[in-house]
Design brief:
Elements: H1 3-11, H2 17-20, H3 32-41, H4 47-58, H5 65-72, H6 77-95, E1 98-108, H7 134-147, E2 151-156, H8 164-176, E3 178-179, E4 182-183, E5 186-190, H9 196-204, E6 210-211, H10 219-225, H11 234-238, H12 240-246, E7 252-255, H13 263-280, E8 288-290, H14 302-305, H15 312-325, E9 330-333, H16 339-345, E10 352-354, H17 363-366, H18 384-393, E11 397-399, H19 403-406, H20 411-419, H21 427-441, H22 445-461, H23 465-479
Parallel strand pairs: 1-2, 1-10, 1-11, 2-5, 5-6, 6-7, 7-8, 8-9, 9-10
Antiparallel strand pairs: 3-4
Helix pairs in contact: 3-5, 4-6, 5-13, 5-15, 6-15, 7-8, 8-9, 13-15, 18-22, 21-22, 21-23
The chain binds S-adenosylmethionine and iron/sulfur cluster (SF4).
S-adenosylmethionine (SAM) binds next to loops.
Length: 487
Amino acid sequence: MEAVSVKKWMDNVIKPEEVEKFRKNGKDFINETSIQEKLMANKQPEKQRIREIIAKALELNRLNPDETAALLNCTDEELWQEMYAAGLKIKQKVYGRRIVTFAPLYISNYCVNNCVYCGYRIGNQETTRKRMSMEELAAEIKALISKGHKRLIMVYGEHPQSDVHYIAETLQVAYSTKEGNGEIRRANVNAAPLAIDDYKILRDVGIGTFQVFQETYHRPTYQRLHPSGLKADYAWRLYSLHRAMEAGVDDVGIGALFGLYDWKYDVMGLLMHTIDLEERFGGVGPHTISFPRLQPAVNTPFVEEDPYLVRDDIFKKLVTVIRLSVPYTGMILTARENAAIRNDVINVGCTQIDAGSNIGIGGYSEETLDYNRQQFILGDNRSLDEAIRDMAKLGYITSFCTAGYRCGRTGNYFMEIAQKGKVHNLCMPNAILTFKEYLLDYASDETRNEAEFLIEQELAALPSEQVRKSVSEMLNRIENGARDLFL
Ligand code: SAM
Ligand code: SF4
């Protein structure tokens, strides 16, 4: 594409009035001074106070910024152990012992931005650029379906070649491609911020969640790490999910890239973001929170010199504080982390993982691992089957359920049932049913043998006798060849 037309496209993306309308008296919901003051004011919290905050979180109440700041400042290891246990309890209350699983699908890596930490940045000459054709995409999707996947996160660089019309077309291909018994039932998107009318285009083709990570909420750091391109506009990104919700995309996913700035500050930023969305949209906060940790990328020296890299023990702490602060929101733990860390951190309250991931464009159908086509380097290269087996050993049933989406159980309605801790008689049965389908259609013998017991165990644990009976009947029908059954 010619430089002139790229520039012309860029000139028309950002609409300042779609930032301004969400500001309160011209001010952003992120106030650096106020966040730093809260972190200072809640230094050295008393034991008793931390325990009261944990108790509040266990009642599934969202914490306020002072409370989150106190947890972040806790230095007592015994209290951290109590927080880890509380994280798991909250997760069990809201979600049960199930993990939702998805695959990341990188579709185009042309990008006009220059994020210093990313392998796809425009200035990186060593990246092999590729945008998938619809035929190539269908081949990728078939490869994913044949492994058992039913959910995707589709990822794009920011470029006129991957504008909203291209994204909409790729979503349609994702939903219409079939393979054997399988299909993609939920396609989420991680892409650059859009304008309200563009979000409506994605809403109309049935997008799942729209994710945008703020990377860091600390404005001076943000400006330094995003020196040029559209992403240099902090506020356009800050309100991207406000615009999505206004456009009727019910489920939005926020996130921060940990390792760019002080981890405590960015956890506070995620909380402020959650609170502002709740205040604006009738109590509905983000559907998911992501907490990717910075990874090495090809020809990206920034990562090696970065002073804010987050250690493993700190990573577990920050995930725990997010869990306690926003008890009802989905939390995504990605394959950026290695298997050992994932198997540990999953126990402090994560609800979703990707598995069998390949983030080189075209990598699923070609079965290749080409670092020059990757945005960063993955830590967990287990296959979907292996990851599911490991999750089963930890006592987790892997859910491929997307019924919440198809029944309109998104946004406000989902938050209501999640906030009331009522997911058990809806989501757990569907998790059991989709897990049964997976074990029959896709699992290796080893995984089937290791994981089958979970179906009996979770069936017996369903609180309602009526639901237990229906699920049991449906399991028999699945054994006899029926598919896609859900409550
Ligand atoms: N290009 C779009 C954007 O930046 O919003 C969409 C997707 S980007 C490909 C997905 C996310 O990957 C980014 O938001 C960032 O948080 C994360 N990321 C970028 N470089 C990374 C790295 N070196 N290690 C880990 N995560 C990274
Ligand atoms: Fe482009 Fe996204 Fe990478 Fe930034 S993080 S360079 S916007 S692909």
